[in-house]
Amino acid sequence: MFTESAPPLKPASVTTQPDRATWQRAYRLMHTAAEMAHLFEEKKAVTAKYVHATARGHEAIQLAAAFHLQAIDYAAPYYRDDAFLIGLGLEPYELMLQLMAKRDDPFSGGRTYYSHPSLRRAGFPTIPHQSSATGMQAIPATGMAHGIKYLESQRGAAPKQTTAHHAGPDAPAALPVVVCSIGDGAMTEGEVSEALQMAVLHELPIIYLVQDNDWGISATGREMRTMNAYEFAAGFKGLHRLQVDGADFQASYAGLAVAFEHVRARRGPVLVHAKCPLMGHHTSGVRREWYRGDNLAEHNLQDPLPRLHQQMLTLGFTETALAQLAAEARATVEADYQRALAAPAPDPATFANHEFAPPAVTQETGERTPAGAEKALMVDAALHTIDDILREFPEALFYGQDVGGELGGVFREAALLAKKYGDARVFNTPIQEAYIVGSTAGMSAVGAKAIVEIQFADYIWPGLNQLVEELSKSCYLSNGQFPVQSLIRVPIGAYGGGGPYHSGSIESTLLTIRGIKVVYPSNAADMKGLMRAAFLDPNPVVMLEHKGLYWSKVPGTEDAKTVEPAAGYVIPLGKAAIAQAADPQKLASGETCVVVTYGMGVYWAKTASRQFTGQVEVLDLRTLNPLDYEAVEAAVRRHGKVLVLTEEPLMNSFAESLAGRIQRTCFQQLDAPVFTLGAANLPAIALNVDLERQMLPNADKVAAALDELLGW
């Protein structure tokens, strides 16, 4: 019925056969799922307004998986898993509300596709938001398992400890499991390999349920791969493997019973490979008749519904009893469709709700300049802040490339933290930027609070898929249910010949991603206050830390070294600061300007301003999103002349965007055009220090711009 990889781990205590009530429930719900698919096709003029897919052909494996899940568990379904969802106990009505993008859609309030659930509900497994699940979901799901294992190690108990969802009140407590559902075609994604690598490396409590129907839209399995998921998984040492007939409910139930017991006993991850027929369309937008030919008839021979019918007759169920179950399913689907059709649409006025969860820090608190405190370098302020957080918050952990072990980061920004807090809390990852970023979504969903590091800004690109699809959209598309708490540290900027892969500036790219916050401190005190606020914020925060400011070794950056604030000091995100004020008399006589900048720009501007004594205000933005535009407008209106300064190549940058906004909102207060200055518009920073110097802004270039601006 099913096969296991060697050595088989099937304890005698595992019950692999459904009881009579489970057989009945499976039959009724399989008919329910089939009736839903039939109705959606029959009413396609209504139901196909928004794209959707159904489980038709996959019902047996999906129901079997759902029946083994408990309220303590976590699930990451994929877009074909509507039978899985009704198997958990969701009503067809609830799924239809999402199908029609209705207001009361319990997952997203009408914001995302059918069978894209987000669920926090008592008595049900938790289902965090995820994207359309074509491979990307493997990393956040593995992050959930990683977070569960970490929290168990810290507390000696699971983060969600309760009894089974479908069991009676006397059912024993169990340890939680994560189920990641995925199609075989999506297993070819590189991010899936990253997830499997971490699952076996850390022996995580996760089941990868691979539903293989031999199709990926119109591409066949033989066009896409030379091996199926079961064969592919053999390369991951420590990954237990099972093969089941996914069209046979009994075989699926038995195989998953073994898989769940294996993972609940904390023996490591399991991959279950289930062959299924694809009997419906790929999606409502890709019709099966366009490309399937005779293949559809072949798949119909494996229909799980008549197979289940025959099994139940063999078990002693009567045709009359089965007909009654089928009739109940049909009546429920028809009634629920009419209810959903009549349900209200979302209020258009709510379209912008839940971009972010409300911030935890709304005002500056704590001691910025405690008596007797010594000055600290920015890099040390960062280290001390992480140390404070790890000491204060047991749910916090810190990971990335080379931050653990002896090195403690290539800039020593995590020095000795692994020795102090242990390898479960501060650890090295493989070269896997996608996992580093995407796993934080899973960590957040289970209550762990991840601080992660991308080694250099130039290395963040493999992680952007996760940042955009999984982190940035989660709060909005889950209607506020699943904001992602994630602090992503990124050393950035050019410094002393770092060359093309260690010197780039990326803030403009990040700022096109809605749903994330971007912070950029310029001194040690701000580093400490902003980093703690970023950790406490319930939303994804990317913290850009300029390498050239870490040690204040670059001439002119001495002020980046400040008195170190006390532990617990916080600065709210989205508040700019005046790094240097203009002389009030020169301001009154109209002889001044303001430089709006951040990071290294603060020090180029301050150095350049020495040639214009008292005439230059420097506004340090500190946070680029949310942007303190009120402070920008107020500064521009004070002075009438403004230079927007950045280290990035100028063309199409955040700086140019900001300059355009200033031109629009402050036009009547401007006494000169809005000036901008940035790096040369080239694809990379050259290695040679003289070439680097030629490409980047510096104090002399800023001074020349200020001279022209003040001369207007």
UniProtKB/TrEMBL annotation:
Q: Which CDD domains match?
A: TPP_E1_PDC_ADC_BCADC (cd02000), TPP_PYR_E1-PDHc-beta_like (cd07036)
Q: Which SUPFAM superfamilies does this one have?
A: Thiamin diphosphate-binding fold (THDP-binding), TK C-terminal domain-like
The protein's Enzyme Commission number? 1.2.4.4
Q: Pfam families per the record?
A: E1_dh, Transket_pyr, Transketolase_C
Q: Which UniProt keywords apply?
A: Oxidoreductase, Thiamine pyrophosphate
Transferase as a keyword of this entry, yes or no, is no
For this protein, the record's SMART domains field holds:
Transket_pyr (SM00861)
Q: Which cofactor does it need?
A: thiamine diphosphate
What region holds the Transketolase-like pyrimidine-binding domain? Answer: 376-552
| Top-level EC class as recorded in UniProt | oxidoreductase
Give yes or no: UniProt keyword Oxidoreductase: yes
Protein's job = E1 component of the 2-oxoglutarate dehydrogenase (OGDH) complex which catalyzes the decarboxylation of 2-oxoglutarate, the first step in the conversion of 2-oxoglutarate to succinyl-CoA and CO(2).
This chain belongs to the protein called 3-methyl-2-oxobutanoate dehydrogenase (2-methylpropanoyl-transferring)
